[in-house]
What does this fold into?
Amino acid sequence: MEAPWLSEVDSQALQQFLRDLDKAYKNFFQNPGKVGFPKFKSKHSNRKSYRTHNIAVVDNMHIAKNEKKLVREQRRLSRKQKESANREKQRVRVARVHEKIANQRKDTLHKFSKYAVCESQAIAVEDLHVKGMQKNHHLAKAVGDASMSEMIRQLAYKCIWYGREFVRVGRFYPSSKTCSDCGYVHNELTLTEREWKCPKYGKQHDRDLNAALNIALEGKRLLKGTAGLVETAA
It folds into this structure.
């Protein structure tokens, strides 16, 4: 392969990029006065996204922007005199930002969960101990922002609506420590290691991607009744 780095991106995203590029040039040449010349995304842009299976996967910059606004509004609220009319007005402003952030999170969850269910025949999720994870002050905000419990709830009931299979993989299943290639369990893996190499065959793994692959494989085994067939470390 002349450009091996292309294999690092899923093929659907590359194909969608070519379709978007073709459409952009066609629009420009058909309406040069109304449609501008195609512009490529800058690496300096703070809004990164890509499209796969005709859906845009975008980071939560819009939520982060409003979270910064919330900090500013809360700071202004703390400076207002208690029981004053200005304090009450500022309290309403803070409440509105809170509501906007909550609605943005709900909208993102609903769009993603519906897309995931409609594009799948079966969905497997890890039965995470979310409350326990939130006790870790390093993870609490990230876990809260991800709304993991709500995402799982939406996936579960939407699978029923659309006639899809839904399965939970046990929280004690070593999804991160198991090599998705050979099934070897690397018990020495620590939480800080984001990448690791399988001691048995030398397969290099990204921790999160490897865990996702294992959850999918274990979900299939659970649905077939053959779960738990993995090799453990000696």
About this structure: The beta strands are 49-52, 55-58, 122-126, 165-169, 195-197, 204-206. Residues 173-226 form one domain. Confidence is low (pLDDT under 50) at residues 52-58, 228-234.
